[in-house]
Amino acid sequence: MAIATINPATGQTVDTFKAFAPAEIDARIARAAEAFTEYRRTTFAQRAEWMRAAAGKVDAASDEIAKIMTLEMGKPIKQAAAEAAKCAAAMRFYADNAEKFLADTQFDPQSVSAGKAYIRWQPIGPVLAIMPWNFPFWQVVRFAAPALMAGNVCLLKHASNVPKTALRLQDVFLDAGFPPDAFQTLLVGSDAIEQILTDARVVAVTLTGSEAAGRSVAAIAGREIKKSVLELGGSDPFIVMPSADLAKAAEVATTARCQNNGQSCIAAKRFIVHAEVMAQFQDLFVENMSALRVGDPADDRTDVGPLATEQGRRDIEEQIEDAVGKGATVLCGGKRADGAGWFYHPTVITGITREMRMYGEEVFGPVAQLYPVADIEEAIRLANDTSFGLGSNAWTGDPGEQRRFISELDAGQVFVNGMTTSYPALPFGGVKSSGYGRELADLGIREFCNAKTVWIG
Predict the structure, then answer these.
(1) Residue 80: Cβ-neighbour burial (10 angstroms; 0-12, 13-18, 19+)
(2) Rounded distance, CA 457 to CA 455, Å?
(3) Could you report the per-residue pLDDT of 153-198, keeping only the tens digit for each?
């Protein structure tokens, strides 16, 4: 895939970039390794000063940053502005909390026959981040902020369709005062990942992306005996029980499915509704989805912009065609918008069976699958009948049902009576084919640290 900015609202190429040659990649890795030798010795206070300055840079340039994201991947401009603000908040969160999160973990010295015993959390070196286009600032910042605050240095291989965003991120950290090579954007394609990850100077990798990409990167990291963290796809359930506030559930369901044009790993994708309230919820949900405004993502009034890539829209069309051909029913949408760009109308589809591709695949766009169930047992069984396990939503006012969903849903996160999202203060990650490891909170900053045991007699 060429490294290029292509406006998904028009399909027109805006700019192209030359990929780094192998020699340039080697030089960049060398600079990162050299930077780490000094950067790891900086204090938490110094790093926090730089990180707060970076947050200020993002706030000051939020309009510009939002326009770049919208131009490159079609995110509605109001959502892009919210993403920039979230990044600044995460930077300040780690500036405020990193030293506490990485304070020595003390143990009872008498139990190990020592005068002192503790864990010292130390940085490990240059970490490669392979990041996706769907949240092009947030996905990077939620790795980079804790990694930099821990004392690591970062090498970013961003998605090839968001090069301007990737370079703007590099500028943010440089302009904030971080050492020049503490955060570097590498303009490379996926064919360069193996060269980077097999380099002995690169000590670990984190990837957010597809299951196929995760398997490939994890295989290389495993062969090289390097730490990896993977955040992969999702097919999150959104369960609605009779005791739920149906109007609120349908409202949140619409946002949960169509935010970011439906292109989110933790977007609700499978709407599992108790038969007792199915008809009422379906009417509300279809009405809400049909009312969404599809159009120019640079317009503040737009709810749903284009898919980020032409291939992404083709994938959705093929999944819909397969389902309808095997008996599924489209309740609204189910077609591309007329005119230029890669737009697709918000869609609700029902009658999904195991033989259909979308039953087992992630649908990465504004397409909601609607499933009726007879009881909580069937709801849980259907929710877990997927290879993915990233997020999950359960809507119920019954405390007993809430306890069961929390205990029995196979997912990295369970949100009860609310929409799955990410917060700097909460760990984020999945199980099964949705990946392993955690981002954010205290767990996230410790992923790329050496937990060094210290025993003093």
Answers:
(1) buried
(2) 7
(3) 999 999 999 999 999 999 999 999 999 999 999 999 999 999 999 9
List, in sequence order, every residue forming a beta bridge with 454; answer none if it has no partner.
118
Cβ distance 6 to 17 under 8 Å?
A: no
pLDDT digits (tens, 9 = 90+) for 417-432: 999 999 999 999 999 9
In the residue annotation, 265 being an active-site residue is answered as yes
Q: Which residue matches tokens 């730089």?
A: 50
Share of the chain above pLDDT 70, in %: 100
pLDDT digit string (tens) for 307-366?
Answer: 999 999 999 999 999 999 999 999 999 999 999 999 999 999 999 999 999 999 999 999
Q: Give how far the C-alpha of residue 197 lies from the chain's centroid of Cα atoms, to the nearest Å.
A: 21
Decide: helix, strand or coil at residue 344.
Answer: strand
Residue carrying structure tokens 């409202």: 251
207, two tokens: 């990837």
3-state secondary structure of 60: helix
CB-CB neighbours of 60 under 10 Å: 12
The closest alpha carbon to 186, from 23, 396, 333, belongs to: 23
Q: Which of 231, 361, 362, 439 is catalytic?
A: 231
Residue 149 has pLDDT above 80, yes or no: yes
User: Strands (DSSP E) along 201-340, which ranges?
Assistant: 204-208, 227-231, 236-240, 268-274, 329-332
Question: Is 231 among the catalytic positions?
Answer: yes
Q: Give the per-residue pLDDT at 1.
A: 73
CA-based radius of gyration for the chain: 23
The predicted-structure confidence for 45-93, as pLDDT tens digits, reads as follows 999 999 999 999 999 999 999 999 999 999 999 999 999 999 999 999 9
What is the C-alpha to C-alpha distance for residues 119 and 102, in angstroms, rounded to an integer? Answer: 9
pTM passes above 0.70: yes
Integer Cα distance of 88 and 77 in angstroms: 17
H or E element that contains 376? helix 376-384
Type of residue found at 182: A
Q: Which residues of 317-337 are buried (b: 16+ CB within 10 A; e: fewer)?
A: eebbeebeeeebebbbbbebb
Annotated catalytic residue, options 154, 265, 332, 449: 265
Pairing of strands 329-332, 347-350: antiparallel
Domains of the chain (ranges; CATH) run 4-231+431-456 (3.40.605.10), 236-416 (3.40.309.10)
Tokens of 432: 């099964």
